[in-house]
Amino acid sequence: LSIRVRTTDQTGLYYEEIFTINVADMAPELNLDQQQTSTVSGSHSPSSGYTGFGQTFTAGLTGKLGKVSFGMANSSDVTVTMEIRPVSGGMTTVLASTSVDVTAGSPLSYQWIDFTFTSPAYITSGTQYAILCTPNVGEMPYSSSNTYTGGNPLVLMESSWISYNLVADWLFKTYVIEASVHTVAFDSQGG
Questions:
Q1: What angle do CA 157, 160, 165 make, to 5 degrees?
Q2: CB 76 within 8 A of CB 139
Q3: DSSP per residue over 45-73, as a string?
Q4: What gap in Å lies between CA 55 and CA 66, rounded to an integer?
Q5: Averages of pLDDT over each 10 residues, the chain, 191 residues
Q6: Entry pTM
């Protein structure tokens, strides 16, 4: 990639120079943003008519939400669909969606399941979002102490996502490809 810069004085004389810009094709870096990984108190089965589970979080970084990891423990193979939605507006807008085949754990113990988005949601620092998963899986590891204060656990009951107050938070991690701004400046001295 090259750019041509020309400066012309009032008499029509000019100076021109071509600058070459090399752009490296680098894989974007996923940065751990929000998480609740501490104090695994056990696992809980959000059953009794619940058909999904979720967690709200408050973004700490601005950029593309490239991956979410969720702690899960299930006794049978299942395909889980994860959606990212903004909390404002009633969680009706889907910003990103992906599905992952989750294999049964034997013995039943939790594992980190990675959900990578091919079309990541753009999230903004300080804004609250919801991680929503369907269908419900067998067991969800959780924290009984609320060390993550930026969100709450959710369950899907019939067609409504509701707060789930029997646990403090589900175990999760969010990874963001930070937004970056590149500025090119030229001064009148040719620098």
A1: 60
A2: no
A3: ---TTEEEEEEEEE-SS-EEEEEEEEEEB
A4: 17
A5: 84 87 69 85 65 93 96 83 95 95 72 93 97 81 78 89 84 90 56 50
A6: 0.77
